[in-house]
Amino acid sequence: MSQFSNFIDNLLCDAADGATADLVDPTTGLVVAAVPESGARDVDRAADAAARAFAHWRTTDAERRSKALCEMAAGVESRADSLVSAGSLGTGQWHLSVSRDEVSELARRIRLTAGEILRRSSGDVEAFAPSLTSSARYEPLGVVVHLGGSHRPFDELGTRVVPALAAGNTVVLKPAGAAVPSALAVAESAAEILPPGVLNVVCGGHRTGNLLAAHDVPALVTMCGSRAAAREVAARAAGALTRTHLDFRGTSLAVVLENADPHAAAEVLAEAAFAEAGQSSTSISRILVSSDLVLEFTAALVKRAEAQLSRVPGGPPVCGPLLGRGRLDSAVELLGRMPSHTRVLAGGRVHDGPGCYLEPTVVADIRQDDELGHADILGPVVGIQTFAGSRRAMDAANAIPHRRTASAWSTDTVAATDFARELAFPHVWVNTHPRTSAAPSPYQDVTPVAADLDRCTRLRYVTRQTPPLTV
Fold first, then answer.
1. Count of CA atoms in the C-beta half-sphere (13 A) of 408
2. Most confident option among 189-203, 307-321, 373-387, 421-435
3. C-alpha–C-alpha distance, residues 200 and 202, integer Å
4. Residue 382 near residue 287, CB atoms below 8 Å
5. For 164-173, 333-342, 419-428, 456-465, which range has the lowest pLDDT when averaged over its residues?
6. In what order do the strands lie in the sheet with 20-24?
7. Sign of CA dihedral 36, 40, 42, 43
8. Mean pLDDT over residues 261-288, rounded?
């Protein structure tokens, strides 16, 4: 069994009081490692180390930071195999292919970020009034705390931690339990390049996260996780008036309109609902289906849900495990609270063998206010709600709180596109629903990187008086 440690000031160290927690492989249910359960002294130590390092790292010019990031990307590529193994240790061997893609994307994202900080380092200078010249430059905020999620840990490193470092901030990262091996592997690799204290990893559960969120050193607290966790982090950070950026899971849904192809829609939406055990950022939990198509569509979806069951008698679902017993228990409790008017058409059972597996589940006849339609659920569970008329479908979709992604389905692409434009969701697709939220766009390499950097920087304006030109 592995033994992990915190990583503070480029040094491995146990929790001050020696407390540990078990890291469980969700595919087997077996304990594979012990990780520190950090307390107040560990949090103080990491925050102090990051604050000391910020005094120097912030003054490092953009060219040197960009070079350091490029070296970091090369280190990720040279250690790809060991990083993939680390990434799959806490998430299960089923996650190997995902980890390989994530590691490759992490290296690419680091290089894109390195280029973007060079592009924006020159600043803008403008004479906006006689004898007055104003310049603007991006500056780091200070110490950034990131409270990470479990599902795609390398993606979070690329979109949350790397931009903060690139901008000149220092970071204290608290990974979720399943992400501890990958976070530590990347941090130890980066220690060959980054000065001590620039990137620190503190392990622990909710208590550790709350201590970091409430700490008076961080200038920014970011997180990826559940709505409940977001509320708690926001409340803790508010006490210190710390800026926050909360990326919490919202509801993703699909709308199958009157003239859609029910079989084509069911094929894609089954993947969107059940792949990776319904834990992707765009995994759908509700499908609105026209009453004219609901029987045909539901039958097709049930068939695909059942195809996710193992061909081996008694074997676990092929869609993979939920990342932790807590997620499994939460999903089971939600199914147990369903009202009597709903019907489970497929799945709903927990695999009685080892691991954290729930059968892909299709629930019919859900209503607008049913918990299943808008719950913060991480699992392969989807509810079917019928509608008569696209206006009712639009109203039902837009009434959902915490909207994240949506898709509209119709053989009439113009009608589906018009419908999609009125959906009040941050990201909407037509006749597709990918497993990630990356938008195909001519700007996809630059725009997300710039947005990630904006999150952890501030614009400083300096206006100076200049002597008027004389002839």
1. 27
2. 189-203
3. 7
4. yes
5. 456-465
6. 2-3, 31-36, 20-24
7. positive
8. 93
